[in-house]
Amino acid sequence: MRLSAGLAQSRNRFARGRLPHTSNARRFPVGLVEDMAGLSEILVESTTIAVVGLSANWHRPSFFAAKYMQDHGYRIIPVTPSYPEILGRKSVPALAAIDEPVDIVDCFRKPVEMPQIAREAVAIRARVLWMQIGMQSGVINDEAVRIATEGGLAVVMNHCVKIEHARLLGGLNWAGVNTGVISAKRMVR
Fold it and tell me: Rounded to the nearest 10 degrees, how much is the dihedral formed by the CA atoms of 83, 130, 123, 25?
């Protein structure tokens, strides 16, 4: 497994005892994060991503994003009642069932579901609520942003964690985002 330079540096800091989950850990700035520096900081300083709505189907965007992040050294926690295991990790039915610290709650759910997910992310003391880019307008919900911000979380909205990691930390190549899937076969709907 190859770690990006930024993630490798981050991991070295964690190995020296400054884990992001300890009480003296530096929190990310509270509120909406949209700038490159803020996104980079979140991606470099995070190690664990709970993916809400993760699918076991390899052609789904949630699977692509989680697989890419796992391949780049992140610990993925599948949050879905639909599958017992995804990407070699046991799935949990809800954020509340997670028994380890979470840096990023990455959401692949409908905007109407986001306020409840934001409440759960605050309850488990996650550091970031990441609402994925979506079909037309992305996973955007102002109430969820308010809940997460008031709960002390950084919020990323209408960005893809995979695309931002590739763009900012070196996962792009001459052909674009490297998914590791080579196929000329058109998906049947």
Answer: 120
